[in-house]
Amino acid sequence: MFSSMSRCPMAAAAARAVMRAVRVSEFGGPEVLRLRADVPIPAPKDTQVLIKVHACGVNPVETYIRSGNYARKPALPYTPGSDVAGVIESVGERVTAFKKGDRVFTSATLSGGYADYAVAEADTVFPLSDKLNFSQGAAVAIPYFTAYRALFLKGRAKAGESVLIHGASGGVGIAACQIARAYGLKVLGTAGTEEGMNIVLRNGAHQAFNHREANYLDKIKEYTKMQGVNIIIEMLSNVNLAADLHLLSHAGRVMVVGCRGSIEINPRETMNKESSIIGVGRFLETEEERRQCAQVVLEGIEAGWLKPVVGPEYPLQEVARAHEDIIHSSGARGKMVLLP
Ligand SMILES: NC(=O)c1ccc[n+]([C@@H]2O[C@H](COP(=O)([O-])OP(=O)(O)OC[C@H]3O[C@@H](n4cnc5c(N)ncnc54)[C@H](OP(=O)(O)O)[C@@H]3O)[C@@H](O)[C@H]2O)c1
């Protein structure tokens, strides 16, 4: 005997219009990430697109937001995730740049990327080259846009300058290594494991150092012949900022990209070299800056120097483990990705 739902086509369609998505209904530890199978598939409004998600990058900030200890808090319940790569499923009435079936990646979703489908504004969506698979596509937007912003839009890096990427083995770090090398900088990178150092060296760094080694700061100073570096892209400022000020050359800049707490520094250390400490907030990008970052990234993919390195991949149902692992990492090996 058939159920009344299976006999009614409209009811069956309505029943099908749900998807799996991770929902957060209260702030807390990784256990608040709940995979639901009954979340309505969002409909794209006039300037929006609906993307069938094939991969979604995991960013550390998503763990800070989930914990409730972050300055920006979404309204509950919500679905985390921004860095989606996938295929256009449908488009809003005013969208002309994309059509069903296009491979794309996006830097921001409106409905959340840890899901089977996600809605995004079309102007935050970009074509995904056949040169990259979906996991690599999910490793592009936030890491590379942040790295380019830190190096050039805020750090004013120039060819011939030196840069220390302090934490180069993760998503943003590898992006920074590749971009800095492509733009003619001398690139030094750090990682916490041998494997991480090798990844850093394969992705543009001229020299790699281990930030878990007791004397690695001395090794960096020796490598620069005590001249220091022009720029530091800092992934863990609460640990390294005071030491960074001793690694800079005259008029050097520390770009604060990652920070998980406070640190005491002596401001006097900035005076003798006229050095700067500059915060980087990718979420503050203007439309023009986003276009600029996208152009650099799309050109880099076509030219072949921009190749995201994908690290651990997790099925959507293991999202809590992914959040545990990204914060308590024993050594990054590229970008962490969720696969719906
Ligand atoms: N400001 C912004 O707009 C913005 C945008 C994106 C990301 N972020 C932040 O930037 C940071 C990096 O993001 P991600 O996506 O690259 O994270 P990720 O993939 O988890 O990588 C973290 C990196 O930090 C390194 N690290 C660990 N201990 C370190 C230490 N003592 N000194 C220096 N580096 C250390 C790790 O190296 P090992 O694992 O090899 O030890 C790894 O390279 C995070 O804090 C994130 O929240 C900020």
Automatic annotation (TrEMBL):
GO terms for molecular function: identical protein binding; mRNA 3'-UTR binding; NADPH binding; quinone reductase (NADPH) activity; zinc ion binding. Residues 28-338 form the Enoyl reductase (ER) domain. SUPFAM superfamilies: GroES-like (SSF50129), NAD(P)-binding Rossmann-fold domains (SSF51735). One of its GO terms (cellular component) is cytosol. It catalyses: 2 a quinone + NADPH + H(+) = 2 a 1,4-benzosemiquinone + NADP(+). It is found in: Cytoplasm. GO terms for biological process: protein homotetramerization; xenobiotic catabolic process. Its EC number is 1.6.5.5. Pfam families: ADH_N, ADH_zinc_N. Keywords: Acetylation, Cytoplasm, NADP, Oxidoreductase, RNA-binding. PROSITE patterns: QOR_ZETA_CRYSTAL. InterPro entries: ADH-like_C, ADH-like_N, ER, GroES-like_sf, NAD(P)-bd_dom_sf, Quin_OxRdtase/zeta-crystal_CS, Zinc-ADH_QOR/CCCR. Homotetramer. Belongs to the zinc-containing alcohol dehydrogenase family. Quinone oxidoreductase subfamily. This is Quinone oxidoreductase. It comes from Coturnix japonica. The lineage of its organism: Eukaryota, Metazoa, Chordata, Craniata, Vertebrata.
